[in-house]
Design goal:
single chain; alpha/beta; GMP Synthetase, Chain A, domain 3; nine-stranded mixed β-sheet
Length: 529
């Protein structure tokens, strides 16, 4: 068998815009809660949420925002972010998500590369003075959140309905800048059809109904928040709960308890932080049944603890990338625990997946590692105003090349074994760091671990393990780690170097920046030699 799978479904794709889908939800669930902003103490029913979305949409129209104009949002998680997402969709403006961690030169690049017509911005967040940064790049078409209500315009639906009549579900509606580790990021351009359907089918596969309450500590500016979270919820009449502006493990669990959350999202490091709270056992998590762990490889041991200790018996792992809206494969609630802890599931409905030999481009036999590729409704329209970069990522047959190394088993379950660029070759032996990481997670004193390859004169590369210890345990030596591995890992997979750290270089979406780790590691080894 070759490593190819296609996703079938009794549920057809949604052939409508985001605005039309929201209108249907409002008609069905008007009195039910749609959005809770815990930090601000504000709540909306579907009816009141839609009323504010329409007031904002009229305000954007009054400011001359045309179909296809780009409207940026630069803010941490807040209700205004969600309102802006749906208001821009209703009038066919393209929402440009701006990373809250950006500094001046990154902001300037995104503003100019996307051709922003209007920026909606927080005043500040953490150590970032957004107003000062916007001023420094000379951009003047900006509305700050402290005057957000100035954008609201009351009235009838005439103008909004007239604009809606000109929209098509294949129109671009969102630009998300990928967090590249070198050079400037590229703007993945996504349509209504891309992100509405992806959010909808994520919700379908974890059984969302109007009874669900979805807690989103993950950033809204990323697909995890705005697609899998917001669109996954509203397409099913469920409630969105924002526990805090930025991730706070205690605030997240407090929201789960107070709001009777049924579904909790997070990248692995978020769940690790929640499980590691000294008072973790005091929180009432009995309302939870499901949730999603995604964003970076999910450690098996962490997944098992989430199932056992957080009551998330139906938790799913999702795999994907911004360029695929984002989810390509996903576990199902009826999968065995081993499937749900050791794979990233099967191909999503209406999508195709294949694992190819990077050298030949042909599908690899089942069980053999190769590059994972995705095709279907979820593949982005392209990188904004970058046709050359688009053609490098999406081939002539519309397959998106992920750059991830994966295997596909005989039943179609996919396992991510690493990035093509992360593959370590030690003395001619191929080593997938993910395998070594999963083993080291079984050590009782290790809370988190990342494994990288570092240069070596004799073998070409050697393994280095960066380790975060559990609170209160004694430091581990490199020899102790090697002893733990002996007889249980092949000799060439045993890390030569061990580096104890408090955390890893990360993007704000929870992705570990292994390129930066390697750079730091080379410096450490040079200073020790």
């Amino acid at each position: 068998m070759l490593s190819y799978a296609s996703g079938t479904s009794d549920q057809p794709l949604l052939g409508e815009t985001i605005g039309a889908n929201l209108d249907r939800a409002v008609a069905r669930f008007g009195d039910r809660e749609a959005l809770v902003d815990v930090a601000a103490g504000r709540r909306w029913t579907y009816a009141s949420f839609d009323e504010d979305v329409n007031r904002l949409a009229r305000g954007l129209l009054a400011r001359g925002i045309a179909k296809g104009d780009r409207v940026g949002i630069w803010a941490p998680n807040c209700a205004e972010w969600v309102l802006t997402q749906y208001a821009t969709a209703k009038i066919g403006a393209i929402l440009v998500n701006i990373n809250p961690a950006y500094r001046t030169h990154e902001l300037d690049y995104v503003v100019r590369q996307s051709g922003l017509s209007l920026l909606i911005s927080a005043v500040s967040f953490k150590t970032s003075d957004y107003r000062a940064m916007v001023s420094s790049i000379g951009f003047e078409k900006v509305v700050y959140l402290d005057s957000f209500s100035d954008l609201f315009v009351s009235g009838d639906m005439t103008e909004i309905s007239a604009r809606a009549a000109t929209l098509a579900f294949d129109d671009p509606i969102n630009i998300q800048y990928t967090s590249g580790t070198t050079g400037f990021p590229k703007g993945a351009t996504l349509s209504h059809h891309n992100i509405l359907n992806n959010g909808y089918f994520v919700g379908e596969l974890i059984g969302y109904t109007a009874e669900d309450r979805v807690c989103l500590p993950v950033p809204l500016y990323h697909c995890f928040g705005m697609v899998m979270g917001n669109l996954g919820a509203t397409s099913h009449g469920a409630c969105i709960v924002l526990p805090s502006r930025g991730f706070d493990p205690a605030a997240t669990l407090a929201a789960v308890q107070a709001e009777r959350i049924t579904s909790l999202y997070g990248v692995p490091t978020m769940f690790i932080a929640e499980l590691g709270l000294p008072d973790f056992s005091t929180y009432d998590l009995s309302s939870l049944r499901t949730g999603i762990m995604a964003g970076s490889p999910c450690p098996v041991e962490v997944m098992k603890r989430v199932v056992a200790e957080m009551n998330m018996t139906e938790v799913a792992i999702c795999y994907g990338m911004t360029e695929t809206s984002p989810v390509s494969t996903m576990t199902r609630p009826d999968d065995t625990l081993s499937r749900r802890t050791e794979t990233v599931g099967r191909v999503m409905p209406h999508l195709e997946s294949k694992v190819i030999d990077p050298a030949t481009g042909r599908p690899a036999p089942r069980g053999e590692a190769g590059e994972l590729c995705t095709r279907g409704y979820s593949v982005m329209l392209g990188y904004w105003d970058q046709p050359a970069a688009t053609s490098e990522a999406i081939d002539a047959a519309r397959w998106m090349h992920t750059g991830d190394l994966a295997t596909m088993d005989p039943d179609g379950y996919v396992n991510i074994v690493g990035r093509i660029k992360d593959l370590v070759i030690r003395g001619g032996e191929n080593i997938y760091p993910r395998e070594v990481e999963e083993f080291l997670y079984t050590h009782p004193d290790i809370a988190d671990v990342q494994v990288i390859g570092v240069p070596d004169d004799r073998y070409g590369e050697e393994l280095m393990a960066w380790i975060v210890l559990r609170p209160g345990v004694a430091p581990l030596t490199a020899e102790a780690i090697r002893e733990f591995c002996r007889g249980r890992l092949s000799h060439y997979k045993i890390p030569r170097y061990v580096h104890l750290v408090d955390g890893f270089p990360m993007t704000v979406t929870g992705k570990v920046r292994k390129v930066e780790m390697r750079e730091q590691a080379v410096g450490l080894l040079k200073s020790d030699s």
